[in-house]
């Protein structure tokens, strides 16, 4: 099942909610909630339910068991900003003019004329939030609050877009900053921390999760759309002390285990508030693992890439979706 279909399902449900068909909703029925958890550069076999022999992911495995497990999908372009463009708008990224991964020197972003999932659902009085990596433009006019989201906390682009990027480590800091400025942490439209430090990066997954849990608690009495695009496991890899050294697969496995913990916190909060039977939870990755086969398996095999236009990739062939239970 491809991601375009998943996005289409959400847009379709929003449209059905607009027309309120009696077959879908009783007069006093509450519309369903939607949660999308979006990993960054996660590989296919990095979850127990997809065959990982050495990374424990009990919460995502439970989603796959109790819901649906999809083993094949296509992404409009196998890179950060492009895939997020398609996820949130349902459009090919090339039509929107967003290619590759936007960096701190980019002057473009998502066009205000495009409608995101959040904007569709706002028309039905949904509360909306994103906690994590945005990567659709870092200037204020491109940030989430201008595109249908009520709340935003996270990084504006990838966590390696900072002066500790491996390509500039041999340079003095003054020269590094000319290529990669300090990484900001943003809340709403304001930068609340600059620079983000390596220690801060160890807390990103925890911070995103805490914000997600608070958002669910705050909106338990009204419909909501929660989007959690994790910064991990995009390199550089960081993990909190909670999961450091816990995996048989080293730091990478630790990071995946912490993301699974995050999913578990979200599912637990939904259940605690009686929302688990009325919430669709989708877990997937943006484009699959991008680096060596030593850390994620199977990896992206160039011989298996599709070369049709618009370009599609089989890099990330997994998705787990479930009505949380």
Give a written overview of the molecule.
The chain is an alpha/beta fold and 325 residues long. It has a single domain (3-323), classed as Alkaline Phosphatase, subunit A (3-Layer(aba) Sandwich). 29% of the residues lie in helices and 14% in strands. It contains 9 helices and 9 strands. It has a 9-stranded mixed β-sheet with strand order 2-9-8-1-7-3-4-5-6. The longest helix has 23 residues, at 250-272. The relative contact order is 0.21. Mean pLDDT is 85; it is low at 293-325.
Could you estimate the helical fraction of the residues in percent? Answer: 25-40%
The largest β sheet comes out as: 9 strands, mixed
User: From N to C, what is the helix and strand string?
Assistant: HEHEHHHEEHEEHHEHEE
Oligomer: single chain
CATH architecture: 3-Layer(aba) Sandwich
- The total count of helices amounts to 9
Distance between the termini: 22 Å
Overall geometry: globular
CATH superfamily: Alkaline Phosphatase, subunit A
CATH topology: Alkaline Phosphatase, subunit A
* Overall strand count: 9
The structural domain count equals 1
Mean pLDDT: 85
Short descriptors:
single chain; 325 residues; alpha/beta; Alkaline Phosphatase, subunit A; 9-stranded mixed β-sheet; 9 strands; disordered C terminus
Lay out the secondary structure.
Elements (H helix, E strand, L loop, with lengths): L2 H17 L13 E7 L18 H9 L1 E3 L9 H10 L3 H4 L20 H6 L4 E5 L19 E4 L18 H7 L5 E3 L2 E4 L4 H4 L2 H15 L5 E6 L20 H23 L6 E7 L33 E5 L2
Parallel strand pairs: 1-7, 1-8, 3-4, 3-7
Antiparallel strand pairs: 2-9, 4-5, 5-6, 8-9
Helix pairs in contact: 8-9
